[in-house]
Structures are given as structure tokens and as C-alpha cells.
User: Which sequence fits this backbone?
């Protein structure tokens, strides 16, 4: 059985030397903070000052604060997903930032993005829609009406869902044009902030 390894440094050849204390293991540098030690399919991520113990069963254990814990097999790799953008000409800490912010948000499992301002969906030309509404809110009854409703809904989706790049572009064009009741514009909000400073 290999001996407990104290991680004291891992620059250049030292990282490899530390890893070789663990039977059959290799190491890989992960930035300036973490060292990943691999042995077969088992792995452990260590930092300076950590202690590594290769158990008789071949598993690697990280020993920290006198508590032995396993941190090895099938370590999940987190997925980082961007699902929302905020597009605004105002800084986030501005009192009226929420009024002048356009939200670009991923909807569904596909690459479909909605562009929304104050809850309304925007089309490519910036026209607002509060959602699909067939026949003034009446529910379809006959098979023919159901088919018409499905087709109309598909048309609405096509007009209000975009790929990511297009959605961000629409929001970027729309954000500078926002005004409240046609009287309080982005420029007014920025001038108010400058006057209050």
C-alpha cells in the first residue's frame, strides 16, 4: 500500500513527484489552486496542505481536518449553461433599471430564446405580444378548430422565438428605444442619474 501523501507544492517536476507517491497515479495541474491526482478511474482533487491516502482497494481518499472522505470515483463534471441575458442601457443599480431592461431567456429544451420586456414577448421588429390567444380567448371545440389553433400557435412561436444570437441582437436594438408612456426615455433616466450624483 502506498503511503499518505502531503501535498506541499506542485510546480514543474514536483507535481509529478507527489503523484508518484500514490501507486500508479499521474497528476494534472488545474490552474494555480487545484491538483488532480488520477489512479485508474479514480481521482481526487487536492490543494496545498491536503493529505492523500491510497487505500488498499485502489481508491484515493482526501483526508482533511482529521476526517477521511472519499472524493474519487465518477466525479461529476458540472455543466455551465447560459439561459438568460439582461440587456439594458442603464446600470443595474439604477433606480429604474428594471423598467429599461430587456430579458433574453432560453425557453424549452431546444435553442429557442424569447425576448421580453416587462412581461411582453417581442417580435423581430419589437412589436409586443402578451402571448398566444386564439379566437379572443375562446377554446377550440371542433377538430377543425383545434387544427387551426395549433397552426396559429406555431405561427406565433415562429414569430416570437429565435436562436440565441438573433434574440440578443433584437434586445440590443430594442433596449435604447424604451420609454415609459412615451415621455420618460433612456436618455431621461441617464440624465436623472447624472443629476442625482
Assistant:
Amino acid at each position: 500500500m502506498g503511503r499518505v501523501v502531503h501535498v506541499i507544492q506542485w510546480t514543474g517536476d514536483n507535481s509529478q513527484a507527489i503523484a508518484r507517491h500514490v501507486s500508479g497515479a499521474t497528476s494534472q495541474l488545474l490552474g494555480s489552486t487545484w491538483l488532480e491526482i488520477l489512479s485508474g478511474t479514480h481521482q481526487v482533487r487536492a490543494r496545498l496542505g491536503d493529505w492523500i491516502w491510497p487505500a488498499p482497494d485502489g481508491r484515493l481518499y482526501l483526508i482533511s481536518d482529521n476526517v477521511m472522505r472519499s472524493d474519487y470515483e465518477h466525479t461529476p463534471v458540472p455543466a455551465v449553461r447560459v439561459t438568460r441575458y439582461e440587456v439594458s442601457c442603464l446600470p443595474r443599480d439604477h433606480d429604474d433599471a428594471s423598467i429599461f431592461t430587456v430579458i433574453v431567456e432560453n425557453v424549452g429544451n431546444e435553442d429557442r430564446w424569447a425576448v421580453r420586456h416587462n412581461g411582453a414577448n417581442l417580435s423581430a421588429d419589437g412589436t409586443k405580444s402578451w402571448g398566444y390567444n386564439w379566437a379572443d380567448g375562446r377554446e377550440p371545440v371542433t377538430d377543425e378548430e383545434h387544427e387551426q389553433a395549433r397552426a396559429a400557435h406555431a405561427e406565433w412561436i415562429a414569430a416570437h422565438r429565435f436562436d440565441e444570437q438573433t434574440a440578443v441582437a433584437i434586445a440590443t436594438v430594442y433596449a435604447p428605444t424604451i420609454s415609459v408612456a412615451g415621455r420618460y426615455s433612456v436618455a431621461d433616466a441617464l440624465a436623472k442619474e447624472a443629476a442625482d450624483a
